[in-house]
Specification:
Layout: E1 5-6, E2 9-10, H1 12-30, E3 32-38, H2 42-53, E4 58-61, E5 76-79, E6 82-85, H3 87-100, E7 104-106, E8 113-116, E9 122-126, E10 128-137, E11 141-143, E12 159-160, H4 163-166, E13 174-179, H5 182-193, E14 197-202, H6 211-218, E15 223-227, E16 229-236, E17 240-247, E18 253-257, E19 260-264, E20 267-269, E21 297-299, H7 310-329
Parallel strand pairs: 3-4, 3-10, 4-7, 10-21, 12-19, 13-14, 13-19, 14-15
Antiparallel strand pairs: 1-2, 5-6, 8-9, 9-10, 11-20, 16-17, 17-18
Helix pairs in contact: 2-3, 2-7
The chain binds flavin-adenine dinucleotide.
Residues 38-44, 61-64, 68-70, 73, 76, 110-111, 138-140, 143, 161-162, 183, 186, 270, 273, 301-302, 310, 313 line the site of flavin-adenine dinucleotide (FAD).
């Protein structure tokens, strides 16, 4: 009871909320759902909206906060129909839409494993067991690190993975983008707009991403492309101060004084909960209906593909739910 009473004050609203949540929790672990969606990023939320509209009984379980990696992005550019929208606004609208379509969404629940039980129903474990006739895995992934000594020590003290979240504190300073791809390009644009001098360091010989943006960046006086190079050492006391860059062809070393390195090396997919077929990097392998190698288990979003536009991942979530609905009606289920 102490936990429910803050510093001697009886908080009735909090207490009622916790009791309500406890009853709901007991209820959801008892019911059998048509689809359990694991992961409440954009792919999972789109999947929930579609499955809900099809009249399926849907339970979505999210480990942390609904919205996934998009929720923390200050601005999403060029989403179809919207030139600009805040990541939080976009994802919280999707949460509302998923709820309006009749889905049950639960946050702060981590699914730790999925298991098929005798009658071809699945159980997902997250402390409790949840039962469903099919599953959609949309667990996304974590940014891939550089793999350098001291990288963990400088985390958030000069080493970052989101320019839109941490860029503002480095206004006008020397910054490195380490990696490549459309999000690295978008991050570079954000940083040059903040007056930063950006060194774009990649092992590739060219930049990949939005062709128009790349053209603009290559003409920007504060943008420097360093292709065929890797960041190989980090230096500094409490904060990152300097890096070593190695030219991969010649082996030449160069030191750069920089305030921060933003790492854009794609992601490590969060696919551990599923014992299905994966590629060498851990991305789930799916067929043309987005079904994994386990019958009735579908996957969508970044746990399947790296570096695809947001609208494709959202479409993927919806498509996986359509496939799950068709599968539930088929003899295979
Ligand atoms: C640094 C960075 C910058 C980016 N910048 C842009 C940009 O500017 N524009 C753009 O369009 N895209 C950007 N992206 C990409 C965008 O974030 C992804 O395309 C999108 O988030 C993928 O959505 P998703 O639903 O597949 O995965 P995620 O957004 O990763 O969502 C997965 C969700 O699953 C949850 N989860 C994971 N494991 C479990 C579990 N076991 N149990 C329950 N829940 C679980 C996670 O907590 C998370 O909420 C960026 C990504 C990163 C990392």
């Amino acid at each position: 009871m102490d936990r429910l009473c803050g510093a001697g004050h009886y908080d009735y609203r909090q207490r009622s909320y916790l009791i309500f949540r406890w009853i709901l929790h007991k209820r959801i672990t008892y019911d059998l759902y048509d689809v359990i969606i694991v992961g409440g990023g954009v792919a999972g939320l789109a999947g929930a909206m579609t499955a809900g509209r099809l009249g399926l009984r849907v339970l979505l379980l999210e480990k942390t906060v609904f919205g996934g990696s998009v929720a923390v992005l200050e601005t999403i550019y060029e989403y179809p129909g919207l030139e600009k929208i805040g990541g939080w606004e976009l994802t919280q609208t999707m949460v509302k839409q998923a709820r309006n379509s009749g889905c049950l969404l639960f946050d702060s629940i981590e699914v730790t494993g999925l298991q098929m039980v005798e009658d071809s129903h699945f159980e997902s474990h997250g402390g409790d067991k949840f039962r469903a006739s099919s599953v959609l895995v949309s667990t996304g992934g974590q940014p891939r690190q550089l793999g350098l000594k001291d990288e963990a020590r400088f985390a958030k003290q000069g080493i970052h993975t989101c320019a839109q979240c941490a860029g503002a504190r480095y206004k006008g300073r020397e910054i490195v983008i380490a990696g490549n791809g459309s999000f690295a390009v978008r991050a570079s644009q954000h940083l040059v707009e903040l007056g930063c001098r950006v060194f774009f360091i990649t092992g590739d010989e060219k930049i990949f991403g939005d062709a128009n943006l790349i053209k603009k960046l290559l003409h920007h006086k504060k943008f420097h492309f360093m292709g065929g190079c890797h960041v190989t050492k980090l230096f500094g006391d409490k904060y990152l101060q300097e890096i070593e860059v190695t030219d991969l062809a010649s082996g030449d070393l160069e030191k750069l004084e920089v305030a921060a390195v933003f790492v854009y090396r794609n992601i490590v997919p969060d696919s551990r909960i599923l014992a299905a077929r994966k590629d060498a990097k851990g991305f789930l392998l799916v067929d043309e209906n987005l079904m994994t190698s386990l019958p009735g288990v579908f996957a969508a979003g970044r746990v399947v593909h790296d570096d695809l536009p947001l609208q494709v991942l959202v479409g993927d979530g919806s498509r996986a739910s359509l496939s799950a609905a068709a599968w539930l009606q088929s003899d295979a289920s």
